[in-house]
Amino acid sequence: MTEQQSRPGYVAARLLGDPQPLTRQLVAPPEAAWGLAAAAVLPGRVRDVPSLRGFLTWYRTELLAPVELPLIRRAFDQVGNYQIRELLELDQALRFERRFEAFARASRAVGRAQLWRLLPLRDQRAVRRYWQAVETGRAHGWHVLVYGLVLSVFSLPLRPGLLIYSRHTLAGFVDTAGASLGLPRSVCAQLWADELALVPPAVDQVLGPGRPGLSLCR
User: Fold this and answer.
1) 88 touches 74 (CB < 8 A)
2) Which pLDDT band, with edges at 50, 70 and 90, does 43 fall under?
């Protein structure tokens, strides 16, 4: 096994059977960008394995499960129901979400990069209107909303999409922190696997009956 193949990010990409290249490029949050997100919040909080584990648990329980996954589903539903105005209103509302502010700059960078990749599909009404709103300053292009748009535009199943998102995002944090701390690959892989095992129940809760609950700006 090569060094790349032992990294959590590589393992995450392989778990769903290596989807088509375009889909894989679109649905996997770019690890380099998420490395920048991690760099903005990790140094003061992560000094060793216990503090890294604590950060991963905080992220899963305070941001991934209650905020990001419901946002992805809401964007997915809105695009599927041609509710583009509601999607843009949600984009604006998210700027007040305090739990998200540490990641805001990286989120906008990742989301806009993904929208840029979608420009060949600008004949798609949702893609065109969202990109125009970002260009004119009427939207931010948050990565979670763009991700939900991608899943909907490509008619990708929501549950595997949410799991892929969780896998890659957790892997990005573990890879970044592990490299900074000089942790053995086996330790990083175990930390990632431990957190990932707790993700499916959160995904299933988001996919429960009715519109997922999401309380912004608590």
Assistant:
1) no
2) low
Q: Quick one: DSSP state of residue 48?
A: S
Helix, strand or coil, per DSSP, at residue 152? helix
Average pLDDT score over the chain: 80
Sign, CA torsion 49/51/55/58: positive
Buried/exposed 100-109: b ≥16 CB within 10 Å, e otherwise = beebbebbbb
Q: Give the 3-state secondary structure of 49-94.
A: HHHHHHHHHHHHHHHHHHHHHHHHHHHHHHHHCCCHHHHHHHHHHH
Distance CA 144, CA 184 (A): 31
Taking the CB of residue 204, how many other CB atoms lie within 10 A of it? 11
**Which DSSP state fits 66?**
I
DSSP state letters, 106-129: HHHHHHHHHHHHTGGGTTSHHHHH
User: What percentage of the chain has pLDDT greater than the value 90?
Assistant: 47
Domains of the chain, first to last: 4-206 (1.10.4190.10)
